[in-house]
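Question:
When you can, review this sequence-structure pair and walk me through the tokens.
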Amino acid sequence: MNDEGKRAWVYPKKPAGNFYKYRTWFTWFLLIFLIASPFIRVNGNQFMMFNVLGREFYIFGFPFWPQDFYIGVTAMIIGVLFVTLFTNAYGRIFCGWICPQTIFMEMVFRKVEYWIEGDRGAQMRLDKQEWNADKIRKKGIKWFIFFLISFGIANVFLAYLVGSDRLLQYITAGPIENLSTFTALMIFTGVFYFIFAWFREQVCTIACPYGRLQSVLLDNRSVVVAYNHKRGERQLGRSKFKKNENRADLGKGDCIDCSQCVQVCPTGIDIRNGTQLECINCTACIDACDAMMEKVDLPKGLIGYYSEEDIEKERKFTFTPRMKGYAAILFVLVGILSGMLFLRNDVEATILRLPGQLYEAKEGNMISNVYTFKLINKTTGSFENVSFKLLSHEGKIESVTHQNIMVPEKGLAEGTLFIEINKALLDDEKSNVEIGIYSDNELIETTSTNFMGPRSFR
């Protein structure tokens, strides 16, 4: 806020330097991954898709169903712990390097703004000048490109939700044929446009809960983007640069009070005031400070990745007991998730006794129970000639229809069947029986169910 109580618009200077170069390369990798993932196919499956309404999910080409919800919950818990561990160890490094808000804002929309309106000073002058042909042209082109990018982002996210094939069908058919989907698409386009054209850094400083979470997770050993105040201030504090003076002998700090770190900050903070929740660890201030230190022939690293202990006690980074605890829990959960994925089957089988039905005594000392079955195929291939066999007892299983059962790709098959077992093989009135499900005589899944019989058999 400014002195008048209005929003103080942030005009960050265009960053440059090694960290910015690394972030740019990493951003290109993430953007290519984000845009290409819905259009890549692995074994006929979309590489990444999260169709919540259709209850269809693909992660790295592997299909997941609502029945795999426990795997998703475990993965989300691991993700939260992973972010917690890294926040405790390295602050908001996720925000500066991986967060989609930062990537799109700083590496896409902001670059368009620099290209059209110029750097910090040019943007400030443009906003202050009266509306004329030049200002209308620049603002109009910028806003139009912002809209096109927002519309493209909305389409990419739609491809994740409904699938790239269906998205291409929508595009081919036109908006009139899919008015409800197009309306939702335009709403999301408007949301993205509002965020990146106006709300901007306020997402990080006001709306995002992660910044608040950071203040709970950080301690004096957490490595964050920080200003080395001991070196920058010394006894007399910061002061403007003067040629041919020995600042160390005079007691002056290495900070020459150039304010480059403030001007380049995308959230408008002064890193010299210490760790702040608005800092997204984007490293722009590191590059700006290093460039200035090089110009005045002072050592680089006045701003860098430091913990409070690094600065105060000049210690190297070490894992704290809390970090070790997070890492241990994370290691255990990753092991559990790996086991879940390894044991996950392509077919989910459920066989249940028909409610309200008793057993039936048949000729030859046989006991019969009636069951309903449901087979869910999680793959993109169908299972033909499906049959059931008893694995734990001698007996037989017959389908009510006496027809071959087929489970379609990404579909299910339901029906009713009878299980018959000689009562001499039953040990109790309720026995647990194991059943194998076969496709073309190949075992594809096993399951178990209860079998009811007489109370006394001998």
